[in-house]
Amino acid sequence: FSFKIYVHLKEGSGADGLDALKNKPQLHSMVAKSLCQNASGKNYIIFTGPSITSLNLFEEFEKQGIYCCGLLSTRKSDCTGLPPSMLNNSATPQSRGQYRIRMKGNMSLICWYNKGHFRFLTNAYSPVQQGVIIKRKSGEIPCPLAVEAFAAHLSYICKYDDKYSKYFISHKPNKTWQQVFWFAISIAINNAYILYKMSEAYHVTRYSRAQFGERLVKELLGLEDTSPTH
């Protein structure tokens, strides 16, 4: 297979610069739209972080046959059009698992309590459907199904980070595009190792992640002969 990685990030404070991207949530939405442009009409569910989650974006995606479930932050999210009463924490003490819901059409805003208030915006799950979060120490915590689904998909990222974060290339140059380039290379190598573990070659050699990386570098530099089984 042949893969290409294109990175285009403009330094500076212009309309398309990185400073503008960091400070304007609507530009995060533009990135989400670009990534999902081929998902229209396929009834996909996307899970978003606070910087992308917004009512306007989710409604626009719904018109395209794309459904969403996102974590909402009053600090990082675009909260335009959302009821202020749901964005303020309740003054009365709450027990773990309690939640409040406001609905508009297919859209639900959920405020769930678990040692703190967590807000979720979704048009992919009914707020009346029940789910559960399982904690090792505290056991099962009741929650809406949207919260359970978000936690389940978030765990993929957490597991990946826990397992492979120490193998990311630590070199951090000053230029942002170079940082993104080395980050993309690190992800590519880690994903290559995952594919290697799924292949028949793994049953022959069983390289660890460190051994795989060392072998890969040697082969790329021409310091070691390659084998058809590796």
From TrEMBL:
GO aspect biological process, one term: non-replicative DNA transposition
State a GO cellular component annotated for this protein: nucleus
Q: Which GO terms describe its molecular function?
A: transposase activity
Q: PiggyBac transposable element-derived protein domain: from which residue to which, for each copy?
A: 22-193
The cross-references to InterPro entries, in alphabetical order and at most eight, read: PGBD, PGBD5
What domain of life is recorded for the organism? Eukaryota
Pfam families, sorted = DDE_Tnp_1_7 (PF13843)
The parts of the chain that form a coiled coil are none
**PANTHER family for this protein:** PIGGYBAC TRANSPOSABLE ELEMENT-DERIVED PROTEIN 5
Q: What is this protein called?
A: PGBD5 protein
Annotated organism of origin: Panurus biarmicus
